[in-house]
Amino acid sequence: xxxxxxxxxxxxxxxxxxxxxxxxxxxxxxxxxxxxxxxxxxxxxxxxxxxxxxxxxxxxxxxxxxxxxxxxxxxxxxxxxxxxxxxxxxxxxxxxxxxxxxxxxxxxxxxxxxxxxxxxxxxxxx
Length: 126
Hints:
Blueprint: H1 2-121
InterPro entries: BLOC1S1
Organism: Pieris macdunnoughi
Region (Disordered): 1-21
């Protein structure tokens, strides 16, 4: 009887050990699956962040190139406006010079007309 109880007890313990071993393996497998799922989930986020960073870098390069082109174009416009302003100043200078010449010519004409009238009105002139 005692030996049968011991055998029965040992059989139950063996069955429990087997059950516990199965549960331990299932638990390890579930933990591995969970870890893998978490890593996969994080990797998806990291991969998305990496793709977004690549897109941002490409957009930043395009923006930088656009800014360089805009700067060059702006410099060309500034040079053109400065040239135009200089040409306008020259036109203004020429116009001022022409007015000065015109005024001088009027003075000379008026002086010559007066001189002619004075010499014509004098007795003894032919």
